[in-house]
Amino acid sequence: MSPVFTRRTTLCLLGSTAAVAACEPSRFITYDGPEVTRVEVHKSSRQMFLLNHETVLEGYDIALGFAPQGHKTTEGDGRTPEGRYHIDRRNPNSAFYLSIGISYPNEEDRAQARERGVSPGGDIFIHGTPNPWRNRGDWTAGCIAVSNREMRHIYAAVRDGTVIDIYA
């Protein structure tokens, strides 16, 4: 193989990689809309809403835990919690694209688990998907999943400390 061919091949490969990377949207966008004061999740209809007080700003179709009926009570039960929580952390390096954390378990959840002698679980997030072509349907371990495009918007719009109400 000639050195010229090797250099040309390398340059072509680098150029192709840069072109593909330029086509992929950035994970991080800027949100300049109204403040999101609350997130509302309706498990039965698989819907999530971002609200400014009582005004719905955005709505999303969601996927839930693999056993979505009822309130999360035990680690590994596949349920998505129900109740009032807060957004308490974010992970820009999530295996599920981007994620924002939900403050489950709260003190009441921990007390009920203690009474039963079990772990309540934790690490409940709103997140994207590890694979953009993932089938819809309930597939998480208890988290709330949206598309990666939607997650970019949610990640930018929802601040830590925002209330999240999760209904059956």
Q: Please name the CATH topology.
A: L,D-transpeptidase catalytic domain-like
- The general outline is globular
What is the name of the CATH superfamily? Answer: L,D-transpeptidase catalytic domain-like
What is the ordering of alpha helices and beta strands? HEEEEEHEEHE
> What is the CATH architecture annotation?
Beta Barrel
**Mean pLDDT across every amino acid position:** 87
Which CATH class is shown? Mainly Beta
Name a few traits of the molecule.
L,D-transpeptidase catalytic domain-like, eight-stranded mixed β-sheet, cell shape, globular, carboxypeptidase activity, 168 residues, alpha+beta
Description:
It is a single chain. The protein has 168 residues and is an alpha+beta fold. The chain has a single domain, classed as L,D-transpeptidase catalytic domain-like, CATH 2.40.440. It has 3 helices and 8 strands, in the order αβββββαββαβ. It has an 8-stranded mixed sheet with strand order 3-2-1-8-4-5-6-7. It is globular, with a radius of gyration of 20 Å. The protein starts with a helix and ends with a strand. Mean pLDDT is 87; it is low at 7-23. Residues 1-21 form the signal peptide. Residues 37-167 form the L,D-TPase catalytic domain. The active site is at residues 127, 143.
SSE layout and pairings?
Blueprint: H1 3-23, E1 38-42, E2 47-52, E3 55-61, E4 83-91, E5 99-102, H2 107-116, E6 124-127, E7 144-145, H3 148-157, E8 163-167
Parallel strand pairs: 1-8, 6-7
Antiparallel strand pairs: 1-2, 2-3, 4-5, 4-8, 5-6
Keywords: Cell shape, Cell wall biogenesis/degradation, Peptidoglycan synthesis, Signal, Transferase
GO molecular function, one term: carboxypeptidase activity
Pathway: Cell wall biogenesis; peptidoglycan biosynthesis
